[in-house]
Every structure is written in C-alpha cells, then in structure tokens.
Amino acid sequence: MTGIVRELRPKPPDTEKITINLGYVDLGHVDLMVAEGFYSNRSDFIRTAIRNQLERHAEVVKQSTARKSLDLGLRNYSRQDLEAVQRSGEMLHINVLGLASISQDVTPELARATISSVCVLGALHASPAVRAALSDRTR
What we know:
Shape: elongated
Pfam families: RHH_8
InterPro entries: Arc_rbn_hlx_hlx (IPR013321), RHH_8 (IPR041088), Ribbon_hlx_hlx (IPR010985)
Helix content: 40-55%
Radius of gyration: 20 Å
Protein name: CopG family transcriptional regulator
Organism: Nitrobacter vulgaris
Largest sheet: 3 strands, parallel
GO biological process, one term: regulation of DNA-templated transcription
Distance between the termini: 52 Å
C-alpha cells in the first residue's frame, strides 16, 4: 500500500538569498579562512559574521523592535484572516521583522481593502498581483 502525501500549503523557504560585493582583498581573507578550515565555505563565514554582528547589537535591535511594534519571525496572512478583518471594518498595518507572507489565494482587491500599510524588514512573500496592489502602501 503506497500512501499519497499531499502538501496542503507550500512550506516557505527558511532562507533568503542575498548578494554582496566584496573587495578582492576582503574576499581573499575569507577564502584564506575557508582554506585553513575555520569555515566550511564563504557562505558559512558570512552567516557567522552576520550572526556575530547581530549578537553584538542585540540590545539595540530589541529596543527598536519594541519601539516600532514589529512582529518578530514568521507572520502569515491568509485569505480567511483578511476576510475577517474586512468584516470587522478595520485595516491592517503589517509590521514584521522576519518573513511576512500573504497567501496566494488573496486577491489584489482583498489586499487593498484590508491592508493599510506594509513595513517588512526581511522578506515579503506575496503574489506579484498583490505586491503591485500594495506597492503604494509598502515602505
């Protein structure tokens, strides 16, 4: 008996790809650290450096997060969530530090009717149509 596994909702990626430019000397230093076995690859070095800087400034980040009323981590907005907001006659102010995700079944019209502003420090996953509909409300 073989079971059929269906994915009800696609899992969002755990990481976001970024691109950085480094000078040749800095890049050489990174490659040297990798060659000497301190790091497994360039990405490992860069992730570690970023984590160290975030840890170094953790208190400032914590204070800023509280001051700006940011939701921390992953925040998903489903069609049902937005329909409930619409029924209540209110508007959402999306403020997320991490990943904000608007479900693929949310229409641009529903998004505009329920989302007043979008401020995401990290990544926003939404359909191209919803992104376009909210472009004047996104900082």
